[in-house]
Amino acid sequence: MHRRECFLFLNPGGLGGGRLSWKARFSALAYNMILSFLAALGVKICQVGISYERMGRIERAIAQWRRRAMFSFCVRDRLSQQYVNSIDMPSDAIVPDLSFNLYREDAIPSQARSRIAISFRFDGKAEASRILEAVQQIAQVIGEEHEYLFIVQVARDLKGMTELQAACQVAGMRTRLIICHDDIDSLATTYSECSAIYSNRLHALLLAAHSGAAPYAVISRGSQPKIEGMLTDLGMADRILFLGEPTTSFSEPTELDRTIFHPEFTRLNEYFDRILGPPLT
Questions:
Q1: Domains of the chain, each with CATH number or no CATH
Q2: Spatial separation of the C-alpha atoms in residues 107 and 35, rounded to whole Å
Q3: How does pLDDT run across 72-118, given as a tens digit for each residue?
Q4: For residues 158 and 75, what is the distance between their CA atoms, to the nearest angstrom?
Q5: Whole-model pTM?
Q6: What pLDDT, on the 0 to 100 scale, is given for residue 14?
Q7: How many CB atoms lie within 10 A of CB 101?
Q8: Do 230 and 210 form a contact (C-beta atoms < 8 A)?
Q9: Could you tell me the pLDDT band of residue 281, with boundaries at 50, 70 and 90?
Q10: Core-most of 29, 85, 195, 277, by most CB within 10 Å?
Q11: What is the spatial distance between Cα 47 and Cα 128, in angstroms, rounded to a whole number?
Q12: HEC letters along the chain
């Protein structure tokens, strides 16, 4: 209203893949009205580093309306771009996930990486029994002499991770439950002690990779396209392991060259320089 340039960045993350409740739909519609009003005033509304899964008809209409209010709309992987372009809400560009800004800082050095990180979500993305079977197969290949850290990176994973750790402990694995969903520095330090991470949480994989742990996505095929899309775009499709498929075989983890992520950091910052202007010196 003061005619000053103003940006509003909406939450990134993943959208779609299910139906919203009627309450959530009405809330989203009300939010769209507010965003449209702000856009009419001249506010530049942006959404960056987002991925989309297939949406129902009503959810798609809500998303298309919101897209029309946006100044900049950039998804984070090629699969999402293909989808949004196909439903008349085109992406302006592919911009890396915001977590790649971590590469502004060096990884925490670690003298020994004798541990293996395990971190899973239990919200319908995969059957708990399939996850348990996979983790036990991983331990058989890597060796039960290693300590396996069962890491709760998101609070709602606590119940499922506690049950998974208990089942693996009964099976003879050396395990420890790590709860650090409210402390990113503690997470980074914990991951720096691990040689690899096996997870179906995208940002567990990405944060662990920054800390030097080799990331392996363990997912049900087709259930998490944002992980498939991003790792494929990064040339890491060989690090996607599909649950319950006969062609999937677990092997000793191989070290990851962290420098492959540095171009993503550069692309991310180039985008913000274009939108907001270069940083002041």
A1: 7-95 (no CATH), 104-259 (3.40.50.2000)
A2: 38
A3: 999 999 989 999 999 999 999 999 999 999 898 887 777 678 899 99
A4: 30
A5: 0.87
A6: 61
A7: 15
A8: no
A9: low
A10: 195
A11: 33
A12: CCCCCCEEECCCEEECCCCCCHHHHHHHHHHHHHHHHHHHHCCEEEEEEEEECCCCHHHHHHHHHHHHCCCEEEECCHHHHHHHHHCCCCCCEECCCHHHHHHHCCCCCCCCCCEEEEECCCCCCCCHHHHHHHHHHHHHHHCCCCEEEEEECCHHHHHHHHHHHHHHHHCCCEEEEEECCCCHHHHHHHHCCEEEEEECCHHHHHHHHHCCCEEEEEECCCCCHHHHHHHHHCCCHHHEEECCCCCCCCCCCCCCCHHHHHHHHHHHHHHHHHHHCCCCC
List, for residues 118-127, the tens digit of each pLDDT value: 999 998 778 8
- The C-alpha atoms of residue 52 and residue 58 are separated, in whole angstroms, by 15
Residue with tokens 């996505």: 217
Say yes or no to pLDDT of 181 above 90: no
Q: What are phi and psi of 220, to 5 degrees?
A: -85, 135
Q: Are 275 and 7 in contact (CB under 8 A)?
A: yes
Name the nearest CA neighbour of 263 among 47, 77, 99, 96. 96
* Inter-axis angle of helices 225-233 and 78-86, nearest 10: 120
- Write down the residue that tokens 């259930």 correspond to: 223
| Residue 212, Cβ density class (10 Å: 0-12 exposed, 13-18 middle, ≥19 buried) | buried
